[in-house]
Amino acid sequence: MTITVDIRKDRPRRRVLGRVLLAGGVTAGVACAVGPEVAESTRLLVLTTPFEYRWPSFLAAVVLLGTAVWLLTDRTAIRVPTLTVCVVAACGALAFGLLFFPLFGGGWEETGRKAAPGGAERYLVVEEGAAMIDPLWRVSVVDGSGLGAHHWPAGFFNGDAADHALLDVSWAGPDALRFTTVDGTVTTVRLDPGTGKPERKLSVP
User: Which residues pair with 151 in a beta bridge?
Assistant: First the structure.
């Protein structure tokens, strides 16, 4: 009798938790679908960082949805196929994120950060990565602070040829970046004084 009462008392809690996880899974799924596009169109730093890639939000969605189904129903006809799909999808996302993504996704690591001169609320970020054995560099500008900060890509360098490697990037004033490659080429990219957006994204080669 005591066991039966405990089970009955536990069911409402499971349903509440299941509904919360279901809502979280749906939210993560929507974020996976539209998050990168919204981040790309707004260039808000608060969005570009978590939504640079889709697979983390996809993994979160399938884990939350699978757990929600487990809590909300005891029907085998619903549980088994849903959980099977979720497990396969989660394993695929994990395999991509842990095995393939580090090889082809860049594996970016921040290696430099420089504030703009003149007290401007702006700084550049240098990141290094690799595509298989080729070294990569990317440079971006962050303008503003807090939730209103914008993140703008400014340069991408592929070191498959040694001459194309990024040697240095510095400020040429509060509204301009100076890029120098190993072969001695110096390129200046100007920024919009109001938003910090580069007039173009430098790509080498």
Answer: 142
Kindly state the tokens that stand for 26: 């749906």
Q: What is the 3-state secondary structure (H, E, C) of the chain?
A: CHHHHHHHHHHHHHHHHHHHHHHHHHHHHHHHHHHHHHHHHHCEHHHHCCCCCCHHHHHHHHHHHHHHHHHHCCCHHHHHHHHHHHHHHHHHHHHHHHHHHHHHCEEEEEEEEEECHHHCCEEEEEEEEEECCEEEEEEEEEECCHHHCEEEEEEEEECCCHHHCEEEEEECCCCEEEEEECCCCEEEEEECCCCCCECCCEEEC
Structure tokens at 143: 């303008």
Q: What is the pLDDT of residues 77-120, one digit of tens each?
A: 999 999 999 999 999 998 888 777 766 666 789 999 999 998 88
22 and 65 in contact (C-beta within 8 Å)?
yes
pTM here is: 0.79
Distance of alpha carbon 52 from alpha carbon 146, whole angstroms: 18
